[in-house]
Amino acid sequence: MTCIAAEDLIVSVADALQYIACFHPPDYVRALHAAYDAEVAPAAKDALAQLLVNSRLCAEGRRPLCQDTGTVIAFVQVGMAVTWDDTSRSLQQLIDEGVRRAYRDPDNPLRASLVAPPLGARRNTGDNTPAMVQVELVPGTTVMVRLAAKGGGSENKACFTVLDPGEAPTDWIVETVSRLGAGWCPPGVLGIGLGGSPEKAMTLAKEALLDDIDLHALRARGPADEIETLRLELYTRLNALGIGAQGLGGLTTVLDVKIRALPTHAASLPVALIPNCAAHRHIRFVLDGSGPARLTPPRLSDWPTIAWHPEQGARRVALDHLRREDVRQWRAGERLLLSGRLLVARDAAHRRLLALLEQGAPWPPGVELTDRFIYYVGPVEAVRDEIVGPAGPTTATRMDRFLEPLLARAGVLGTIGKAERSPAAIATIAHHGAVYLSAVGGAGYLLSKAIKSVRVLAFADLGMEAIREFEVVDLPVMVAVDSRGEAVHQSGPAQWRARLAAPPGSTNRDGDAP
Questions:
Q1: What is the CATH classification number for the domain harbouring 460?
Q2: What is the 8-class DSSP label of residue 10?
Q3: Structural domain of 60
Q4: Are both 384 and 304 inside the same structural domain?
Q5: Stretch (H or E) spanning 101
Q6: Are residues 325 and 472 in the same domain?
Q7: Has residue 512 been placed in a domain?
Q8: What pLDDT, on a 0 to 100 scale, did the predictor assign at position 508?
Q9: pLDDT number for residue 502
């Protein structure tokens, strides 16, 4: 019999969550670097460069890869010969204590994102608990834990269907990914669950995301079974969609496709799809009674040295002196470096602003929206000499329902986020002569380096969702929707889909990249 100390599990969970918040797995870094080397679409290559530079900065500085440090997912296999030194707390409680310590670590606080209850008040739990725990009893004398921290942008893109037994899951998967948008921060890994029951298929898809990236090795040796053949087919067809890094159009949309399958009812074919984002946080450790897990940081030599020059070809913009006629000169796809003051607000703050607008009430003291830009972000708490912690964009699509009143009645000049806007939001932007700018999702620590001062203006009780003012110098963004309604998240993938569909050697396929 092996006796596992409860404290060893708690410490191991806390250490592992801190580890994956800051360090990409080496297999992911290699896959992302290979995608960068192969990419010829300028916008996608720039986005990949930012992700790789951000990854190395986080490893060097031991700071989170992304401001959304995720919901904690734990798959736990407990050996049936294991005993515990403390049986006063459940396994859920022990793991939650590990989560609490990790997210409240004063040396590297991670952003608490969970709210309770899910309806109504939706107040932040303050420590990112509870974790989502799956437990399996297995033969043996050890406890094996696989942890992930999944951000909201990728979790929101989870999909499920039940196909007829004769239908091909590949067609549904490809069609579904083509409609996901860029909120999951591609390129990433796609987890697929086949068979079982509906809830089991979703679990299989989530578990599949914890497997190592080995697609290039699979392509080199060839498939050994039907599942591997399916992985290769999906990899080829999904990248042929031309969605590209950050949905800007390019060669690589998925780095790998991982599939897990179980027997299922003769009348059914459950299919689940869950993408992993650019943060790609997961780890595995085993407890054998000898103490907490020992986690060895990767070597900095595992990261490539990327020469990223944001100033090349970019227009410098002074936000504090910007006029509406100035933004009308910007064109979709143009890169900008922003300097000056901008507002920071996301979902909860937007709801309060709209309530004030409907009531005819004044804005909170210090909040002025006319001719201002709103950056959709919930930053991580600063440590040591930082101005702010990682502060990358959240998905702009969620803010689409707030856009019309803020542009029409509050006079907002533009917004900054990640991913696409809906057709209705694009029409609204064009109607008001406004713009939407995109920053690279998954590069939050790199982007935070451009932020020179921060102050909370309103709704401090919302925590990371409070309204803030950032003063920035050379914040790198792209014009994603210009004042005419041209949108790069539509035009970029469409152009690359057409190029990739052209015969090899043709001008359309191999000419200069747009």
A1: 3.20.130.10
A2: H
A3: 1-150+281-308
A4: no
A5: helix 91-103
A6: yes
A7: no
A8: 59
A9: 86
pTM of structure: 0.95
* Cα–Cα nearest to 258, from 179, 318, 189, 166: 189
289 and 272 fall within a common domain? no
Per-residue exposure over 369-406, b if at least 16 CB sit within 10 Å of its own CB, e if not? beebbbbbbbbbbbeeebbbbbbbbbbbbbbbebbbbb
Instruction: Find all residues with CB under 8 Å of 367, minimum gap 6, and list them.
Output: 343, 457, 458, 467
**Which amino acid, residue 406?**
L
pLDDT at residue 509 in the model? 52
Residues (pLDDT < 70) of the chain are 505-514
pLDDT of the residue at 52: 98
Residue pair 374/504 in contact (Cβ under 8 Å)? The answer is: no
Alpha-carbon distances, residue 133 vs 72, 108, 142, 263, 277 (angstroms): 8, 24, 18, 23, 20
- Going by C-beta distance under 8 Å and a sequence separation of 6 or more, which residues neighbour residue 2? 79, 81, 82, 83, 141, 142, 288, 289
Question: Which whole-number Å values give the CA distances from 11 to 74, 82, 95, 98, 136, in the listed order?
Answer: 15, 18, 9, 6, 21
Cβ neighbours of residue 296 closer than 8 Å, sequence gap 6 or more: none
The domain total for the chain is 3
Q: Tell whether 248 and 102 lie within a shared domain.
A: no
The Cα 276–Cα 82 span in angstroms is 32
Q: Are residues 294 and 331 in the same domain?
A: no
pLDDT digit string, tens, across residues 308-322: 999 889 999 999 999
Residue matched to tokens 């989560």: 99
The residues near 497 (Cβ < 8 Å, ≥ 6 apart) are: 240, 241, 242
For CA atoms 182, 355, 69, 292, give the dihedral sign: negative
Question: With the C-alpha atoms ordered 44, 48, 54, 55, is the resulting torsion angle positive or negative?
Answer: positive
Q: Do 379 and 353 lie in a common domain?
A: yes
The residue behind tokens 């979902």 is 347
> CB within 8 A of 184, min separation 6: which ones?
153, 154, 156, 157, 275, 276, 277
Tell me: do 38 and 59 sit in the same domain: yes
Determine how many CB atoms are found less than 10 A away from the CB of residue 274. 26
Pairing of strands 115-116, 123-124: antiparallel
Across the beta sheet with 254-264, the strand order is 159-163, 269-275, 188-196, 254-264
**pLDDT value, residue 513:** 44
The pair of structure tokens assigned to 15 is 């250490």
Integer Cα distance of 58 and 67 in angstroms: 12
Rounded to an integer, what distance in angstroms lies between the CA atom of residue 125 and that of residue 120?
A: 14
Pairing of strands 188-196, 269-275: antiparallel
Asked if omega into 106 is within 30° of 0 (cis), the reply is no
